[in-house]
Amino acid sequence: MLHGHTAYIERRQKKWDAGRNLDTKDEEEREMRELQQKVKDATDELEQSMRAVIDSGVAAQRIEDALEWLRQNAPAQLEQEYETQMTQRATQRQSQTQRLDADGDVAMDEDEEPTPGPTPGPTPLDGSRVALTGVSQMYADRMQRKKDDYTSLSLTARYARNNDYRAFKGLVHDAMYGDSGPALGHEDTWFTETGSPAPGVTNTQRGAFEDDDDIIVDKVKMSTTCPITFQQYKDPITSMKCPHTFEKNAILDMIRNSSNRVGGGGQRGMGEKAIECPCTGCSQMLTASDVRTDPIVARKIRRLQQADAEEAAESDDDDDDDDDEIAVPRHGPVQLDGSSDDKFKVPSRMQAPASQQPPQSSIIEDLGDPSDEDEDEDEDEDEDE
């Protein structure tokens, strides 16, 4: 909606610059500002909600990982902690019952008896108990430690590397700019140093000696034809390793029939079937798990195909109009001012009735050559003689 309204305002701006329709300028500009603010507020809310969803997913995974860690490590850790504390207690008792004499020999107090060895059971005879860390405390400590590790990451690492956030970012950018806008910038440019999303991020190319203002914004260029079938896309599927899209059945059939495998550790028949990307110049090895439906790419392809169909329909209409204009219309006699009027049209004599024939006196007759009269006079004189 914002993209369409922005294009509308740009068209109106040309008329306003020419001094036309100025009475609606202030009102339409105000509506545009209000729409931009609404879109910004809605986008900010969606941004926060999307981050919360990602954080919740990470927290859920953190709980699962912590419970799994407890299952595998808690018994051994408790046993090690118990043995450590018992060893410390034995050492303390031994130090209390021994005393060094002046020449370094160990002497026993007369009224003390040797301390017996460790007693069986978790509770010593003096009534003190071994203080072990509870499982719940181990769980809470690990959860807090992993949470601190996560929150210490940059927003780029926390969100820009997340596939769900990437899809969300693509949807927002597509809604704002459409097909004619600049490409979405690299994920490393999505957040500023303060952590907020960078406004108006676009895909730019900057030379080593170019000024800050000298930025070239690339337009998105996308083909609607599959590089395998050379037919229009029906069910496009996109690689996650390279920027190429294929017809789903075509690329999956190629992978299914491939004899190459990756990730099998060098063992024959192990690993996933894979093919080299069919696009010229791309050497990425693709498996079935490396391609997926990209909703942004699919939407763009559908819009491009629809635009091509509409353009073709308009072209056919123009051709039909040209065919209709081939017949040359009949015009009346041309007047002195260059115009023609059918009511002054004079029909041909071959088609006109006798009553409309011009008078006889207006018909030019052949009166002969003047030299013929001189010859006739000479002949008459000869006869008289």
UniProtKB/TrEMBL annotation:
Main localization of the protein described in the UniProt heading: nucleus
Record-annotated SP-RING-type domain positions: 211-306
Coiled coil: none
One GO CC annotation: nucleus
Region named Disordered: 1-32, 80-129, 304-385
Superkingdom of the source species: Eukaryota
Compositional bias (Low complexity): 84-99, 347-362
Comp. bias intervals (Basic and acidic residues): 8-24
Key words of the record: Metal-binding, Nucleus, Transferase, Ubl conjugation pathway, Zinc, Zinc-finger
Protein's name according to its UniProt entry: SP-RING-type domain-containing protein
